[in-house]
Specification:
Helix content: 25-40%
Shape: globular
Number of helices: 10
Strand content: 15-25%
Number of strands: 13
Distance between the termini: 19 Å
Order of helices and strands: EEEHHHHEHEHEHEEEHHEHEEE
Radius of gyration: 19 Å
Structural class: alpha/beta
């Protein structure tokens, strides 16, 4: 039996990016039960990719009840619906076998990974205060993509001078803006820039000097995306809600590395259940950005453990 439920998690604070603000995370949780065992997976439908809670629910509810992980890519395209089902099936398989998912996948036992912490888009003064509050975190991610980005970036660097800074422009720049900002990004020690240009307009990056590495986010969904990224990006951001689950995420990771790309593993804003399988993909990644639960006022039970060592692999009671 495949069941879909809607769950809402309040955010600790209003979360703002260049596309808008939110006060809660709305997710879909898939429960797949067979032979007395239930597996779970979570997804976050994303309007940027034409997804809604209703449309993704309909995709999931239209699946055959006995569908397998191997059959899933033929039934659903990459995206949130396939992600939740794929992860639920992995969880189901692990529970039925009495093993952890990484054992079934032939992966080494995972460990904790240091994760970035995302600062919401705000005034420079507010962002400096946010940065100072979180200056103890090793990596801070800044949401930019507006005409007033430099004052915000300067403020964050002043508020957290020891943190490693990564920037997410959320498709808000042009090639000319990136070229103008690049010397300042270098001066301030920015480690990378995510998706500076809109997906579909990033041919403008071909041949451009990239003193700060560029990471493809909206331009990279699954392995089929890789040929179009050559010469534009140095890194790819793997998110399970884009790849369509853990199965394709692991395959994308290996294919991207073989093509010479560095790996970032990111997330939508969801609960620990959504992050749990992504921790496996994040093993050895250049950048891990799985801070979704840290942005919530409430989380699922049991949650992932976050401490000075980073985000830890999930307990079996959570997933996998």
């Amino acid at each position: 039996m495949i069941e879909v439920t809607r769950d809402v998690f309040r955010l600790a604070e209003v979360f703002t990016i260049s596309r808008g603000s939110r006060t809660e995370a709305q997710v879909l949780t898939v429960h797949i039960s067979r032979d007395g065992v239930t597996g779970r997976g979570e997804c976050v439908p994303y309007t940027r990719y034409g997804e809604t809670l209703d449309s993704v629910t309909a995709q999931i509810e239209g699946l055959p009840q006995g569908i397998t992980r191997m059959e899933l890519p033929e039934a659903l395209p990459p995206g949130a619906a396939r992600n939740a089902v794929d992860c639920a099936l992995w969880d189901l398989e692990a529970k039925a076998a009495g093993q952890r998912v990484w054992e079934l996948a032939g992966l080494p036992a995972p460990g904790p990974e240091i994760t970035a912490y995302t600062l919401s888009l705000d005034t420079p003064e507010a962002m400096r205060a946010q940065a100072a509050k979180h200056a103890h975190r090793p990596i801070l991610k800044i949401k930019l993509g507006t005409p007033d980005d430099m004052p915000r970036l300067e403020a964050v660097c002043a508020g957290a001078p020891e943190a490693r800074i990564i920037v997410d422009a959320n498709e808000g720049w042009t090639a000319a803006i990136y070229a103008d900002l690049a010397p300042h990004l270098t001066r301030l020690g920015v480690a990378l820039v995510e998706q500076p240009l809109p997906a579909g307009e990033d041919d403008a990056l071909i041949g451009i000097d990239r003193p700060v590495p560029l990471c493809a986010d909206e331009s990279c969904h699954d392995r089929a995306s890789l040929p179009g990224l050559k010469g534009k990006y140095d890194m790819v951001n793997i998110k399970l809600d884009k790849t369509g689950g853990l199965t394709e995420a692991l395959a994308l990771r290996e294919a991207a590395r073989a093509e010479g790309f560095d790996i970032m593993v990111g997330c939508m804003v969801g609960s620990s259940l959504a992050m749990a399988p992504a921790v496996l993909v994040a093993q050895g990644a250049a950048i891990t950005d799985l801070d979704g639960p840290l942005l919530l006022a409430e989380d699922c039970d049991p949650p992932l453990v976050f401490d000075a060592d980073g985000v830890h692999p999930p307990d079996a009671a959570l997933w996998g």
